[in-house]
Write a structure and sequence with these properties.
Keywords: Iron, Metal-binding. This is Putative chromosome condensation protein. InterPro entries: Pirin (IPR012093), Pirin_C_dom (IPR008778), Pirin_N_dom (IPR003829), RmlC-like_jellyroll (IPR014710), RmlC_Cupin_sf (IPR011051). Belongs to the pirin family. Its cofactor is Fe cation. By secondary structure, the chain is mostly beta strands. It has one domain: Jelly Rolls (Sandwich). The protein is globular and about 55 Å long.
Amino acid sequence: MSTSRSIERIIPAIRTVEGGGFVVHRPFPTRLLMDFDPFLLLDEMGPADYAPGEAKGAPDHPHRGFETVTYMLEGEFGHKDSAGHSGTLRPGDVQWMTAGAGVVHSEMPAEDFTRRGGRVHGLQLWVNLPQRDKMIAPHYQEIPSARIPVATSEDGKVSVKVIAGEALGVKAAIETRTPILYQHFSLKPGAQIELAVPRDYRVFAYPLSGTALYGPQSQPVRAQQMVVFRDDSDTIAVTAGDEPVELLLIGGVPLKEPVVRYGPFVMNTEEEIRQAVVDYQAGRMGAITH
């Protein structure tokens, strides 16, 4: 019988404020963990309830050298960029934005949602780009909820939305620059699952709701705590208690390259960061037309 990956550490998400004043819970980067190669940041936006006219977002800001993955659970966010791209993310939708050489981007609550108010809950993951791809042309993959593949376990107690990678025999629709898995699991009370993960992936779980038991030690972990697994097996075991559990399973093959970051710029050298600042200030990343 195989033994599932053991837990290396558990990191609580820190509550902070981003953009125009919206609340996020952030497991990394913090003083406890700066990055999780190949990932640079994970923010859980909310959950927060806004009265009419109160919803907040992230006004115009630049990115270079990495990808942002936005996954909406509740609420509606509009987005625009300096290349003239725009759209709206609704519950269950995913936007995988490859910033590459640079783009100016805004993420704001949709006008209708701002007028009526409501709950905002979503996630943003920053994925580092390998050195060879740092300066590629920006592009998007936008996947509405209906197009995200879903799989269910044989006993019907576990379901998963496969945003990236493969789970329960189903492959994602999104293409990634490097090998990555990003999966949203829903476990019914008492559900047990042993998930296959490639041995060369670094993997973590981030519970969104409910308390479950993780790893061969059956360690209880509640929502908004990041579970960092060791690379000592090719499976991950999760058992739900007496309540439903929602969790993200995220992993990837480490790039093992130098990381130099300055706010919204992530490159391999300090000189590249200085050049990114110069390019942005000179308007070479463009501007959003509102």
